[in-house]
Amino acid sequence: MEFAEILPYFSEKRFIAELQATTKQGALEELADKFVDSDLIRNRDILIEMLQRRESVGSTGIGHGIAIPHGRTTATAELTVAFGKTSAGIDWNSIDKEPVKLIFLIVAPPSEEKNKYLPMLGTLVEFLSQEKNRERLLNTQTFEEFKQILTD
Amino acid sequence: MIKNQIELLVALQDLDIMLQELDEVMKLGFDMQQEGKEKLEGGRNELIEKINKPLVGLYERLRARYKRAIVPVIDDTCSGCFMKLPTYLITLAQRDQEVITCEGCGRILYWI
Ligand SMILES: [Zn+2]
């Protein structure tokens, strides 16, 4: 999957340039609210429950200030992503113990016709493994800039 | 109350999917605690204790037959077999008082 191919799963409605949250739980809730606000999920509690359970298996903080909380839930019909940034950093119990500044929340339905969920997760990990991409994302203020970084 | 039962069933299915896909996800570069899988299995047992036994039975039977036991209703249609749901079922569901199954395929329905 090409980097630019993941772009359609993002939306300005699910883009937070500066998160209010200061904790992992708070950030998960703030991002989950974006799915509820954009009518992708009716029941926020079910989404939060799934995300907490996922974190209990192992942190979704993959190092270098990145967290990619993710999972499939019966409570949604579409594969979608929310993005949030925090300049202060949030403790995510990451592999490298670094505070997290870039958070991508990926939510997928139990099964999708095109099976894009796992490839997308892999593509995002690969994209974020490049330092220049992380640096640029840390400096984004608008969704337009964000889109540009993914398509460059 | 029954609404909670549906929510618990949905949480159970989400957990089962997570268990099935865990190895594939970890290969992508995520870290898993040594006891990660046992934690999920423990959580699964706790969930099951909260759900009525006949419902758990129904869930397990459906899961053995189809890949997914609970499917979302999209545009008043069962997304498991694509049967349009009769109006009375939709009205019933809006009351959130009963666990509703599809008349076409028998899967448990969940209104997103
Ligand atoms: Zn059906």
Describe this structure in words.
- The complex is a heterodimer of chains A (152) and B (112).
- Chain A is α/β, with parallel strands linked by helices and 152 residues long.
- Chain A has one domain: Mannitol-specific EII, Chain A (3-Layer(aba) Sandwich), CATH 3.40.930.10.
- Helix content of chain A is 38%, strand content 20%.
- Chain A is globular.
- With 112 residues, chain B is mainly alpha-helical.
- Chain B has one domain: Helix Hairpins (Orthogonal Bundle), CATH 1.10.287.
- Chain B has helices at 2-27, 36-50, 53-65, 87-94; strands spanning 70-74, 77-78, 108-111.
- Chain B has a 3-stranded mixed sheet.
- The longest helix of chain B has 26 residues, at 2-27.
- The interface between A and B is medium-sized, with 33 and 34 residues.
- Bound molecules: zinc ion.
Helical fraction of chain A: 25-40%
Biggest interface, chains and residues, is:
A-B, 33 and 34 residues
Our Rg estimate of chain B from Cα atoms comes to 16 Å
Query: If helices are DSSP runs of H or I spanning 4 or more residues, what is the number of helices of chain A?
Result: 5
Helix fraction bin of chain B: 55-70%
Note the main sheet of chain B: 3 strands, mixed
CATH fold-level assignment of chain A: Mannitol-specific EII, Chain A
- Going by CATH, what is the homologous superfamily of chain A? Mannitol-specific EII, Chain A
The Rg value of chain A, from CA coordinates, equals: 14 Å
Highest-level CATH class of chain A? Alpha Beta
Instruction: Please write the string of helix (H) and strand (E) elements of chain B.
Output: HHHEEHE
Number of domains of chain A: 1
Structural class of chain A: alpha/beta
Oligomer: heterodimer
Topology:
The complex is a heterodimer of chains A (152) and B (112).
Chain A: E1 15-16, H1 24-37, H2 44-57, E2 61-63, E3 66-67, E4 70-72, E5 80-90, E6 100-108, H3 117-128, H4 131-138, H5 143-151
Parallel strand pairs in A: 1-5, 3-6, 4-6
Antiparallel strand pairs in A: 2-3, 5-6
Chain B: H1 2-27, H2 36-50, H3 53-65, E1 70-74, E2 77-78, H4 87-94, E3 108-111
Parallel strand pairs in B: 1-3
Antiparallel strand pairs in B: 1-2
Zinc ion is lined by residues 78, 80-81, 83, 102, 104-105, 107 of chain B.
